[in-house]
Amino acid sequence: MRLLLLWLLHAAALLAVAYLLPGIHVDSFASALIAALLLGLVNAVLRPLLVLLTLPVTLLTLGFFILVINGLLFWFVGSILSGFRVDSFWVAFFGAIAYSVIAWILSSLLASAGNK
C-alpha cells in the first residue's frame, strides 16, 4: 500500500514540476504515472551503473556530477515517452532537481502522517 502511495506522490510531484517549469510537459495524470514508474526503474537500474562508470569525474567535482547524471536520466525518460516531454538538457537538469525536492517533501509528509 505504501509503495502505491509513493508512486502516486511521485506522479503528483512530476505534475508539479511540469506546472512550475515551462520546458517540461506532461499530458495527463496517466502519463505522469507512467513517467514516474519509468523514472523509478531507470534510477534503480541505470543510475548505479552510470555513477560507477563516472566515479572519477564525480570525485573530481565533489559529487556535483551526479546532478548531471540525474538530469540526463530525466531527459532520457522524457525522450522515450510520448506523454512526457522535456525540451532541453538544462530544463531536465533543473527539472530533476525540482522533482527530487518536491518528491522528497511529499514523501516526508507521508512518513510524518504515518507516525501520528
Describe the structure.
Helices cover 80% and strands 5% of the residues. By secondary structure, the chain is mainly α. The chain has one domain. A two-stranded antiparallel ribbon has the order 1-2. The model has no long low-confidence stretch (mean pLDDT 94).
Question: Briefly, what is this?
Answer:
80% of the residues lie in helices and 5% in strands. By secondary structure, the protein is mainly α. It has one domain (8-115).
Question: What radius of gyration results from the CA coordinates?
Answer: 14 Å
Cα-to-Cα separation, first versus last residue: 17 Å
Count of distinct strands = 2
Net shape: globular
Helix and strand content put the structural class at mainly alpha
Strand order of the largest sheet: 1-2
Strand percent estimate:
5-15%
Q: Which helices and strands, and how do they pair?
A:
Blueprint: H1 2-20, E1 24-26, H2 29-53, H3 55-60, H4 65-80, E2 84-86, H5 89-115
Antiparallel strand pairs: 1-2
Helix pairs in contact: 1-2, 1-5, 2-4, 4-5
